[in-house]
Design a protein that fits this description.
Blueprint: H1 8-15, H2 23-45, E1 54-58, E2 64-66, H3 67-80, E3 86-91, E4 98-99, E5 108-116, E6 127-135, E7 154-162, E8 166-171, E9 177-182, E10 187-192, E11 203-205, H4 216-226, E12 236-237, H5 243-253, E13 255-259, H6 272-285, E14 289-291, E15 311-314, H7 316-326
Parallel strand pairs: 3-5, 11-12, 11-13
Antiparallel strand pairs: 1-2, 3-4, 5-6, 6-7, 7-8, 8-9, 9-10, 13-15, 14-15
Helix pairs in contact: 1-2, 2-3
């Protein structure tokens, strides 16, 4: 069979040869392909059935909640409620962790952002689902300690990108592979095998409207990228407002994604457990780097469920340049 016609399920079967990719892990990953198919359908229909707007409530992050945020979170819980190997789930949309009814038996816990970039739904922009899978650190009833693990402990991570096409990109500790959904038959096929993030090319992605909130070093560092004065070469500016979309482009084309801290919010906006760590896991497996500006993202030991960190993510040379200018 040619690589281009390899299905996601067949790749999971191959992954089982890897010591980290057990049959149980493959089942968990396969459920995220189900989540991807479910949400791709919901997003396509949202405008027709009145699911574009806000609910009038806020989540634990004090962010306005859209109908699709709730739908996406419910889809993740529904997909895993009868999967005994999953003990619990931490989600951006829930203040506390969700514990499976058979949680004491589960060997994995999941950290997820069910729908990153949901604000793009009104303009048919890119959105995504981010997930990280950890092996439990305790036995018996799941505890918060099972989730508060550094990204180095991830056994698998990935994202689903919703846009002109639906893609699932993941790694179970080995290569980063990308699969594209054939909507006509509902199957993901391998289209991007063994992704390696390019060096000396690409774009820089950052919300430059926040410049007035940054410290002097951050402003100077971003200006160096904007003026094409960096040692890594010229970089175009690209920013979509969806972390998954910007990271996907960076992963395939090279460059850097940045969300620095601010003078009044030094920890930035993005969450460590279910955004920064899973995407950095993928980035490093593809040859890139992820940093909070001072240390590798994957070395940070979380102290709380919804902890935030700055994020500098992308090609190794670009991240090293950004961090070096912040030192």
């Amino acid at each position: 069979m040619s690589t281009s016609r390899l299905t996601l399920s067949e790749q999971f079967f191959r992954d089982q040869a890897d010591a980290q990719a057990t049959g149980g892990l493959s089942t968990v990953l396969n459920r995220f392909s189900l989540v991807g198919r479910m949400l791709a359908s919901e997003i396509m229909r949202a405008g027709f059935v009145g699911k574009l707007g806000y609910t009038g409530t806020t989540n634990v992050q004090d962010e306005d909640v859209r109908a699709l945020d709730i739908i996406s979170n419910d889809a993740v819980l529904e997909a895993f409620e009868s999967i005994p190997m999953v003990a619990g789930i931490a989600s951006e949309e829930m203040e506390d962790v969700w514990i499976s009814k058979d949680g004491e038996q589960g060997k994995y816990v999941i950290a997820t952002d069910p729908l990153d970039g949901s604000g793009n739904v009104d303009v048919a922009g890119q959105m995504g689902t981010i997930f990280g899978i950890y092996r439990r650190s305790t036995t018996g009833k799941p505890t918060l300690d099972d989730f508060l693990q550094p990204g180095r402990n991830l056994v698998a991570a990935g994202y689903v990108l919703y846009g002109p096409c639906t893609m699932l990109v993941y790694s179970a500790g080995g290569p980063v592979n990308g699969f594209t959904l054939d909507r006509s038959i509902g199957t993901f096929f391998l289209t991007h095998p063994d992704i390696r993030i390019p060096e000396q090319s690409g774009a820089y992605a950052i919300n430059e409207a926040n410049e007035g909130k940054w410290d002097d070093k951050t402003r100077a560092m971003v200006a160096a990228f904007r003026r094409q004065e960096t040692a890594v070469g010229k970089r175009a500016a690209r920013y979509s407002g969806a972390l998954v979309g910007d990271f996907h482009r960076t992963l395939l084309k090279g460059g850097i994604y940045m969300y620095p801290g601010e003078a009044k919010k030094p920890q930035g906006k993005l969450r460590l457990l279910y955004e920064n760590a899973p995407l950095t896991f993928l980035c490093e497996k593809a040859g890139g780097l992820g940093s909070d500006g001072k240390q590798p993202i994957l070395d940070i030991v979380p102290t709380e469920l919804h902890q935030r960190t700055p994020l500098f993510l992308g090609s190794k040379g670009d991240v090293e340049e950004a961090v070096g200018r912040l030192a």
